[in-house]
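Supplementary Note 2. Why include the ligand at all?

Several targets in our set were suspected to adopt different conformations when bound, so apo predictions alone were not considered sufficient. For every target with a known small-molecule partner we therefore ran a joint prediction. The input for phosphoric acid mono(formamide)ester is given below.
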Amino acid sequence: MNQRFSQSLLGLEDIPAAEIISILDQAQKFKKLVSQNETPIDLLKGKRIINLFLEPSTRTRIAFEIAAKTLSAEVISITEKSSSLTKGETLRDTALNIQALGADAIVIRHSSPGSALFLSKTIEVPIINAGDGAHEHPSQALLDIYTLREKLGELHGKKITILGDILFSRVARSNLWGLIKLGADVTFAGPSTLVPREFEELGATVTHNINDALMEADAVMLLRIQHERQSSSHFPSLSEYTKIFGLNFQRSEMLKKDAIILHPGPINRGVEIDSNLADCKRSVILEQVSNGVAVRMSILNKYCRII
Ligand code: CP
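The joint prediction is reproduced in token form.
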């Protein structure tokens, strides 16, 4: 891996377990400083971070913005509609211009798998992948893993079930890479059209039997149906999907006593998860969102300071 690549966070597939742990441990320190109101922290003072979000986002964009500001960086957020991409400028030219304007790092969300890698080869500044198509969403997986560690302790041997639309999910892929590196057992569950057996080759257990996947889990992560990436329907109807694969109260009774429920958001209440379960005591969904700030502080601190 050359120096330029090591400055970017493109995904969890190519980073070692030790690097994941170091990001999580630093996030824990940042979380403590934030909770003690010992902010702002001047580690990124003088750095200019550009949030280039070319797909919609609530959690990721805002958390990266808060994280950058808490570390005293200057942060500018751009959406596709507010950029000259709408006038026909290419992604490459957009990035080159952002670099010419003095960016020290670019956080990018894009609908195309490989877009973050492409930018990392095109420009000199670090690239942080905030989601590239169905490929990877490393900062989301890191905050998920952070939350899992906080709730379950050491993840080695823990059983994590990810239930829903795995095929089109960058969150599922990044979590798989990260979790298996930390020794967890990952089960992908859902309809066969959205959870193909091919994922076994990547290290996941694949099942279409939801009850088994829930009974064994220490944690279950629900994923919404990612309609924006599907050109055809993968099941007869949403109501049928909910009936067979949604997490409802009756199915939640199968979970272990201390099992927790996660969701990366956005939630489609009443589809992949019953609305009451999203707010129940087992749910750590909003804690995931809050942890996203400290985790992204740790990511920015690591990848934006070595230039
Ligand atoms: N989980 C996640 O990526 O949420 P946003 O799309 O709101 O950023």
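Residues 1-5 have pLDDT under 50 and may be disordered. The longest strand covers residues 48-53. Comparable summaries for the other entries are listed in the accompanying table.
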